[in-house]
């Protein structure tokens, strides 16, 4: 009986050690960590807006506008933290096409930033209803998806 308990404790301890080794979090001070943090901040703005337009969250025009402004403030920031071509990057989820197709990647970034700018402009002066911003948010979402499809694993 005692050995079965020891075996269980040992198995739990080994599982814990294995899980610690599986931590995929980047060093927060590294370029990868900074990039991840910025993308997470972007999600904290885009998710509530998407939730409002899909009726998962009640629509709130002023809150939607705040999130659009927050996303606009972040739209230029993460791109500086991608390593230059030829520099060995930290483990990440970027496809090699980020470096082998820099013109396409730059175009995808520009499309994203332009769609965020359009979304923020649509919220200036207030948001009275979802119809006022649905096309612009959909363009942001499509820009994100297109970039992920082409440049992210």
Estimated share of beta-strand residues: under 5%
The helical percent reads 55-70%
Major sheet characteristics: none
**Poorly predicted spans:** 5-22
Individual helix count: 6
So what's the overall shape?
elongated
Topology:
Elements: H1 2-21, H2 31-53, H3 61-74, H4 97-100, H5 102-123, H6 134-151
Helix pairs in contact: 2-3, 3-5, 5-6
Report what the structure shows:
This protein is an all-alpha fold. The protein is 66% helix and 0% strand. The chain is built from six helices and no strands. The N and C termini lie far apart (47 Å).
Task: Give descriptors for this structure.
0% strand, 153 residues, single chain, mainly alpha
Q: Nutshell version of this structure?
A:
The chain has 153 residues and is mainly alpha-helical.
């Amino acid at each position: 009986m005692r050995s079965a308990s020891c075996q269980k404790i040992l198995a739990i301890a080994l599982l814990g050690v294995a899980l610690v080794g599986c931590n995929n979090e980047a060093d927060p001070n590294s370029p990868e960590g900074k990039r991840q943090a910025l993308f997470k901040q972007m999600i904290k703005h885009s998710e509530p807006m998407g939730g409002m337009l899909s009726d998962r969250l009640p629509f709130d025009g002023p809150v939607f506008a705040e999130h659009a402004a927050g996303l606009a403030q972040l739209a230029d920031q993460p791109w500086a933290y991608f390593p230059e071509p030829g520099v060995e990057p930290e483990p990440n989820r970027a496809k090699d096409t980020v470096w082998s197709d820099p013109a396409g990647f730059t175009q995808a970034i520009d499309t994203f930033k332009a769609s965020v700018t359009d979304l923020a402009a649509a919220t200036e002066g207030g948001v009275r209803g979802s119809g006022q911003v649905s096309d612009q948010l959909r363009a942001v979402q499509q820009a994100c998806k297109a970039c992920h499809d082409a440049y992210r694993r």
